[in-house]
Fold:
Amino acid sequence: MKHIVQLTIIFGLTLIGLLISNLIGQAIPGSIISMLLLALLLISGTIKSKHILDSGNFLLRHMTLFFIPSCVAIIDQFHLLEGHVAAFIVICVVSTLLTFTTTALTVKLILALQRGRKTE
Structure:
């Protein structure tokens, strides 16, 4: 039962984010809005991390499964990539490096902020 409640929270926020995205004309993806909503609810204490911890960890452990539809779609539409494979690979490498860098800097900033709070 606990997992159903946790998944309901996570998927409910996802749905709310998608609805907000559709209302504002999809200028911002629903997944980004959902993550911001979750972050705000966690920061404000409305939702505690224990409320989503088990299901969140499960989803993170099995995250690779969520990439299967994207990979299948790329393979299915490969004819659109023909002649542009090199550009596609460069885009993938550059976006991956930017994601790694942004994530590392964000984690570094959050750790510094947490250390600052502990010393106060």
